[in-house]
Structure formats: C-alpha cells, structure tokens
C-alpha cells in the first residue's frame, strides 16, 4: 500500500504545482487522490483525474454518502422499509445510485474475470477470484459475484470518504495553527530531509507529526457515531440494563469531548499525546476515530 500512496502523492503534487498559485478547490483533488489509492489496491489501476468513469464513481459516491437517510437507518433499521415505501429522504435516488455503482463495479469485475491469471495476481479483486476458485474446488464456503461487488463497493466508499475527510480536517487545523505547522515541518526536515518522501519506517521518529494526525482525527471527529453493534447478552453498566439483542451505537463524539479524558477538549492540542520525553503517552489509546469493537480500524 505504501508504494501506491507515494505514487499518488507525486501525482497530487504535480496537480497542485500546475495551478501555479491560482485558487483551487483542494477538496476535489484530495478525494481524487485518495480514491486513486483505493482503486490501485482494489482495481489494480489508477485513473487520470479527468477520466469520465473515475469522475462518475466519485460523484455517485459523494451523492450517496451525503444522504441523511443513511445514518438514520443505521440507528433505526425499520426506517428502511418506511422510507422505501414512501420514498422519503430521497431514498429512491439513493437506491438508484447504489445500483449504478454496483453496475460499474460489475463491469470492472467482469474485465478481471476475462483477464484473470492465478499466477499473476494484480489486486484485491484477483485475490478474491482466486479464493473463490479454490473454495469452489473444495466445496466449502460459497462465494458470489454479489458479495464481491458489495465488498469492493464497501472498500471504495469507506476508504475514500474517511481518509479524504481526515486530510481536509488536517489542512483546516494547520492553516489555523501555523505554529503547529512549523513544528511539523521542523520535525520532518530533521528526520526525513527534503530530498525524499516520508516512509512508514520514519513513523517512530516523527512523534509530533503523528500526534498532529491523532489530534486531527479526534477533534475532526470523522465518524461521530460508529457502526451499530448488538448486545450478545444482558448487561448492566452504571445501573443501566442493556437487554440482549439491543442495538448499541457507540457515540464517538461524546468520547472525544470527554473532559475526563481530554482536558480542554475543544482545543486543538497535539501535545496532549506526548510525554515529557516527546514520546507518545497512553492517551493515544483513547482515540478510536473510525470504529469500536473487535474489528476496529486502527490508525
């Protein structure tokens, strides 16, 4: 993945340099760059930023994720049936967008099937097709094209939206905190230099940069509410009884603004994650920006 990211960063920088100081809506270019990293991993190719297929993918994804219907259905599942019948919240449009996205995914998957070579796996889709082929031979787990389309769509949507939103928040915080921006620059200059891109192996030498990223994900609050979970047994917490089968929606926003965990929680303060020696302290473990539970997405 690192090589894909570094490659896309180079393309992204070329786009910015081509603007020659003119105003630019950087949100669009950031979403294109992040989407391309996901596309490289999942589809095995990156797109030019002006590619019509690529532009349609991003446009459809943005329309789908911006629909207020989605989080409400997560919290109150039966709304799905109500909204489907009465077409409230633009439900039908949302459904049509998903159908369109799945058609685009199906076309990409079909192309992979035609060119599949189990001795030369190019990306996630090829890896899935190989597993599908092996399990079919062994008569074990049932794989399907519908499942593959769904997984590919999930990877594309979740990977694009959360990462690009996090980067945009980082830009906002750095613009409003030039002292933090300068401190990051100093640390990068000292530990990486100006002749190469930062690598994952540099991470342990960049505690301040990582603390800025961590604080961005906390205060930016990329996902205010995590995915719904179900209580597998009766449970009592702080004298409240949670019956087995209850839907539980983790409130990330409340956690990230809990003054017992983050003093002056509305203030952007990367130093809160550093100890007296400039290393990470245990507070970073309290930042879970993408999800909670056994299968959380780490940072």
UniProtKB/TrEMBL annotation:
Family stated for the protein in its record: Belongs to the cytochrome P450 family.
Coiled coil: none
Pfam families (alphabetical): p450
GO molecular function: heme binding; iron ion binding; oxidoreductase activity, acting on paired donors, with incorporation or reduction of molecular oxygen, reduced flavin or flavoprotein as one donor, and incorporation of one atom of oxygen; steroid hydroxylase activity
Locations listed in the record: Endoplasmic reticulum membrane; Microsome membrane
SUPFAM superfamilies per the UniProt record, alphabetical: Cytochrome P450 (SSF48264)
Protein name: Uncharacterized protein
Membrane topology annotation: Peripheral membrane protein
Record's keyword terms, sorted: Endoplasmic reticulum, Heme, Iron, Membrane, Metal-binding, Microsome, Monooxygenase, Oxidoreductase
Example of a GO cellular component annotation carried by this entry: endoplasmic reticulum membrane
Gene3D superfamilies: Cytochrome P450 (1.10.630.10)
Gene Ontology biological process terms from the UniProt entry: organic acid metabolic process; xenobiotic metabolic process
InterPro entries recorded: Cyt_P450, Cyt_P450_E_grp-I, Cyt_P450_sf, Cytochrome_P450_fam2
Sequence positions that bind heme: 297
Co-factor requirement: heme
Signal peptide, first to last residue: none
